[in-house]
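Below: protein 1.
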Amino acid sequence: MEQNNIVADEKKHYVVATAIIVKDGKYLIAKRAPNEKAFPNRWTVPGGKLNSSEYTNRAPDAKELWYNVVEDLVAREVKEEVGLEVKELDYVTSLTYIRSDNYPCIIISMWGNYHGGEVKLCKDLTEYAWVTLEEAKKYDLIDGIFEELEMLDNFLKTGKRERWKKNNSPNKN
C-alpha cells in the first residue's frame, strides 16, 4: 500500500555508502556534475549504491553470510569515483533519503584514511578539494554533509562519537 507517494513495498530500499576521506588533516569533497539527477552542482563525498551481485558473485564468508559488504562497497566507490584507495574504514552515521522516484535510500556514512593514489574524477564529478572543517563552510555542500564532517572532526580530535544533529550549517539553501 502506497503512502505519501513512497514506494509500495516498505521493505525495499537502496543501500548506499559514502566515505569521508582523511589526508593530512583535510577532507576530500567533490562537486557533482550539472547533469546529475540528485543534487546537481552541489559538493559531497564519494559513494554509491550497493548491488546484490557485489556479494552474491563471491563465495559466502560463513555458510550463507557475506561480511564487510559495506566496507567493500566504499572501497570500490572511492576507487571508481575519485581514483583513491582508503584504509581503516569506520562508521560516522546513517541516514535515509527519499529519491525523486520515491524510492528510499539507506545511506551509511563511513570515513577512512587516504592510503594511495592520485585524485582522478569520474564523469559524474567535476571538481574536488581537500578542505579543513573551516574551509568546508565555503562550499555548497549537500545538506547534512557539513554536520558529518563536523562529527568526524570532533571524533578525530576527542575520540568521542556523537549522534548526528542539525546545527546552523553554513550551507542552508
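Below: protein 2.
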Amino acid sequence: MNLLATLSGASQAPIALAADAETAAAGLQINFFWVIVASLNFLIFAVLLYLLFGRSVSQMLQERRRRIAQGLEDAEQARQDRERAEADRLATLKEARSEAREILDRSQRLAQETRDADIAATKAELERLREQAASEIEAEKQRALAELRTEVADLALAAASKVLGEEITGERQRRLVEDFLHETASPGSSS
C-alpha cells in the first residue's frame, strides 16, 4: 500500500505542478482562439440586435433628430417673429409719436387761428362800437345843435319882440330866423 500511496503521491505531484504552472501561465498569456470566438459572438449578437431593434432604434433616432431640427427651426422662427414684432412695435410707437406731434401742432395752429379770429372779431366789434358811438355822438351833437338853434331862435324872437315891442309869431318868421342862424353857423357861407 505504501507503494501505491507513494505512486499516487508521486503521480499527483507532477499534476499539481502542471496545474500550478498552467494557472501562472494562463494569467499572462492571450489565447487568440478565444478572442476570435468572443469577437464573433459579439458580432453575431450585434447583427442580431441590429436586425431585431436596429430599424426601430434608427427610426426613433431619426424622429428625434427631426424633432430637434424642427425645434431649432421653430426657435429661429420665434426669434425672427420676436424681432419683427419688436420692429413693428417700434415703428408703431414712432408713428404714434409722429401723429401725436402732428395733432399737437394742428391743435396749436387751430388755437392760434381761433385766438386770431377772436382778436379780429373783438377788434371788429370794437370798431363797430366806436363807429356806433361816433354816430350816436354825431346824432346827439346834431340834436343838441338843433335844440340850441331852436332856443337861440326863440331867444332871438323874444329879443326882437322886446325890441320891436310886438310879438313875432308865425311860422314864416320862425323859418327866417332859423335860416339866418343856419347861414351864420355854416363856415364858408359868409363870403
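Helices lie at 2-26, 32-164, 171-185.
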